[in-house]
What we know:
- The complex is a heterodimer.
- Chain A is mainly β.
- In chain A, 4% of the residues lie in helices and 24% in strands.
- Chain A has a single domain, classed as Protocatechuate 3,4-Dioxygenase, subunit A (Sandwich).
- In chain A, strands 2, 3, 4, 5, 8, 9, 10, 11 and 12 form a 9-stranded mixed sheet that branches. Chain A has a two-stranded antiparallel ribbon with strand order 6-7.
- The model of chain A is unreliable at 1-9 (pLDDT under 50).
- Chain B has a single domain (20-180), classed as Aromatic compound dioxygenase (Protocatechuate 3,4-Dioxygenase, subunit A, Sandwich), CATH 2.60.130.
- The mean pLDDT of chain B is 96.
- Strand 1 of chain A pairs parallel with strand 10 (190-191) of chain B, so a sheet runs across the interface.
Amino acid sequence: MSKLDLYGTEGLLYPRDRAWHPPADTPGYKSTTLRAPKQALLSLGATKSEMSGPTFGHNSLQPLDNDLIRNFSQDGGEAVGQRLIVYGQVLDENARPVRGTLVEFWQANAGGRYRHKREGYQAVLDPNFGGCGRAITDDNGYYHFRTIKPGAYPWPNTGNDWRPAHIHFSVFGHAFAQRLITQMYFEGDPMIWQDPIALSIADPAAVEQLIARLDRHNTTPMDALAYRFDIVLRGRRSTMFENRPEGN
Amino acid sequence: MLNQLPPLKETPSQTAGPYVHIGMTPSLEGITGPNVRDLGAGPVPGNGPRITATGCITDGSGAPVIDAVVELWQADADGNHTAAWARIACDGTGRFSFDTVKPGRVAGPDGKLMAPHLTLWIVARGINVGLHTRLYFGDEAEANQSDFVLNRVMDPRRRQTLIATPSVADGKPVYTLDIRLQGEGETVFFDI
Lengths: 248, 192
């Protein structure tokens, strides 16, 4: 192999399948119109600047970072709403767990209201709900957090659009080129298929990948429903003829 | 299932949306307290001369992108990628500004040293997939001439969209690179 194929002993990442992601300009989601680059992206092939990435230890987290029901409590009380456990495994495209990586999440409250100064929805704020949290994946790539189910909320896109209930996710991976922001939807929600943002993705199979499944087995009796949302980051090429402790 | 290549598809991206600050810079929204803090805020750690890296982000109509969040990842002065990561929300004029260190040179895919650069990643409402770009330094003309990535930009005029203008403010070097998401002078963004 030529030197351009490999960077040191690390295999390059698989190219991003841009047809699986939303294109930059999706007219149904009007905010993209002036913010979508018109020039083709320059295919770079990752260098060390993109194959490395920041690492986060447990000292990056606060004790209640994975408990949105309590991490903004103002009076000792808990956030109002349908109590949920959201969990899942972060994997790469080779189905290997991504260990020790930071996962961040943010969402609206049970009424669909975000705690944000540019929010214009009439639903009321919950004094005990901030709406953000973080977790670091364990040795098998799993994360979990406790929250309340966010409400659907209106936005002015075409005058009267409504977004399905969703939770925003930010994931780091181990290379800056794996950095990903996405949104999680809830199984069975008919509003997903009317949502200009979910439908910015052309392939319904790709949208399905964003829909968390109700997991009755992992509900907590008399406390919380459970939803499973697995996240896949870009995978690395094999370096077949080099010794790699983690194997292929 | 056997013989699937590769077995899984990457999770598709979705926009960070207008409320990205709740998750990434919560203190800006008054989400503070003993259990919440902003990651990546404040001066960027790392060895090297302190600099300010700044610029304004504008859209295809020239309007400032006031709701973007920018992340920075870079090597330190010795060319090591250790902990120099930061993120910041653009202000009401679309400006981002990092208090960081000037990076050293890092080997490129061809084995030669790349010119010093910062890696930037931009997310916002209306950006469906986070945008990767770089900030190079206008006072590194010789290194920039031979840089692997800059030379991949065929149009030399577009190369300039990646090179920050040096100046000095209060005795501290400042590098300014405005980022245009679309239209005339559109910044080069990378598929990496």
